């Protein structure tokens, strides 16, 4: 796996030697449920403006949301800002280096803590994202994972497979993640290209192809689209936006108000006497 990764791994900016843990943390939060190609330009702009956690913590959460742009799931920007504040106030602005300390940060779960420990600090840590789970389940069980989140058994298996030597374990984690992203994909695995094919239960007895029965969630006219339009207006303004302007983003005033109210509840919009703005 390590040799395969050395030959086939993508040249991504956060994989460059010397990338610090803060940059790795930002990458991991941005990459959740988001294609890498969309993450790269936002990640580069983000780190140019906020090269460390303290720089972000000293700025407003609204500016984090603005810089997040159209990356999707903008509440992640708020969580990342909360993490930055915790790093500044609780760790002197330096991202902590152990899995346990990372897991204690707001907005950081088991996967992100493991990824930052491994890729930011070079530590031996289990990294279980959706790609790693899929690869290990197919190789050993001949089937995709069924649980929504990693089970105790999955973590135990990943721990048992993880190389003992720290640097090799980091490369192994990156390799399995990359294999799941590029070869052992969810819908169309390219088994002949896989370095694990000879040892894979899935490749030995592939399940019958399943026709796709689920439909894509519609976008036009949904609350998601309306929320996106409201957020676009707020990001474009560096001051207050009249509520009437925000409620005019769609033909249904009730839907627009519902979406604006939900953004306020999520902490992505802040009402003031004369309008609405990104959170201060």
Automatic annotation (TrEMBL):
It is an enzyme of class 3 (hydrolase). Its cofactor is [4Fe-4S] cluster. It catalyses: Hydrolyzes free adenine bases from 7,8-dihydro-8-oxoguanine:adenine mismatched double-stranded DNA, leaving an apurinic site. The keyword 4Fe-4S applies. Its EC number is 3.2.2.31. SUPFAM superfamilies: DNA-glycosylase (SSF48150). PROSITE patterns: ENDONUCLEASE_III_2. SMART domains: ENDO3c (SM00478), FES (SM00525). The keyword rRNA-binding does not apply. Keywords: 4Fe-4S, DNA damage, DNA repair, Glycosidase, Hydrolase, Iron, Iron-sulfur, Metal-binding. Residues 30-182 form the HhH-GPD domain. InterPro entries: DNA_glycosylase, Endonuclease-III-like_CS2, Endonuclease3_FeS-loop_motif, HhH-GPD_domain, HhH_base_excis_C, HhH_motif, MIG/MutY. Pfam families: HHH, HhH-GPD. Belongs to the Nth/MutY family. This is Adenine DNA glycosylase.
